[in-house]
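Re: your question about Metal ABC transporter permease

S., sorry for the slow reply, the queue was backed up all week. Below is exactly what I fed in.
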Amino acid sequence: MDLLAFLLEPLQYGFLTRALAVTVAAAVVAAVLSCWLILMGWSLMGDAVSHAVLPGVALAYILGIPFAIGAFAFGIGAVALIGLVRSTTKLKADTVIGVVFTGLFAAGLAIVSATPSQIDLMHILFGNVLGVSAGDVWQVLILGALTLAILLVKRRDLTLLAFDRTHAHVIGLNTRFLSALLLGLLALTVVVGLQAVGIILVVAMLITPGATAFLLARSFDRMLVIAVVLTVAASVAGIYASYYLDISTGAAVVLCQALVFAVVYLVGRPDGVLWQARRRRTKAVPSGTQGAPSGTQGAPSGTPGAPSGTPGARLRDA
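Result:
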C-alpha cells in the first residue's frame, strides 16, 4: 500500500471523517486552554471537572436532553462547590478537589447503575467518537469556537493573571471574574472533549499538550502554537492508529499525545534527559586529571537555586 492510499482509505468512511473532525476540534480547544492550566497549576482542577460531570451526563440521558447541558451544569456546579468549601474551611485546595470530584463521580456511577438499560457507561467514560452524528459534529464545532473566541478576547488579561495575579489585581483587573471565567471555559472544554475521548481520558487532553509545549517554548505565544500543532498531529495519528490497529480511538489519541511528550522529554529540548547524559559524557574529566578543577562544576548556575514561583517564571525570564 502506497502512502496516498494509506492516508485516503480511512477517509472513505463517513463515520471516520466525522470522528476526525470532532477529535481535532476538541483537541485544539483543550490544547489552548491547557497552556493556561499548566501555568496556573490548575491541572488537578481539570481532572476534577472532567469526573464531576458524570452525573450531569447521566441525568441528561435519562431526561432526554442534550448531554452537553447536563455536563456543563454539573461542571459549573463542581467548580462553585469547590470554591464554596475552600472559602468556608481551612482545607487545602487539593483536599477539597479530591472530595468533591470523587463524590460527584460516585453519584454519577450510582445513577448509571440504577438505569443500566438506558445508559452505556463505556461510551460516557471512554467516548464514542466513531458513533458521532453530524449534529454532534456541529455541536462540538460551535462550543469549541465559542471557547476559543472567549480565550482570544480575554487572552491578555488571562495571561497576566497566570503570570502575576497580584500585579493583575493592582492594575485593576477583576481577578475573581477572570478565574471564574477560566473555570467556566474549563467546564465547557470538558463538554467538548467528552465526545472524543470520554470523561476518563479528557483530562489527558487538558494537560499533556500544555505540558509538552512548556518543555519546548520560551514564550507564551510559542507555547500556544506548539501545543496546537502537536495535539493536532497526535489526534490525526491517533485516528489512523485506531483504524489500522483496531484499537480504541480515544486511547489511541491519548497514547499518541503521551508519546509526543515522552519524545520531547527525552530528546526534543536542549535540557532533555538524553542530551544531558550526552553532555555529561563529553565533559567527563580524563582519569589522569581527576584532581584538577573542572573550571565550571563549582560555579553557580545562576538560576537553579532561585525559587521558580510559578511554572510561568521560566517563560517570563526568557
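Confidence is low (pLDDT under 50) at residues 294-308. Residues 175-216 form the longest helix (42 residues).

Happy to talk it through on Thursday.
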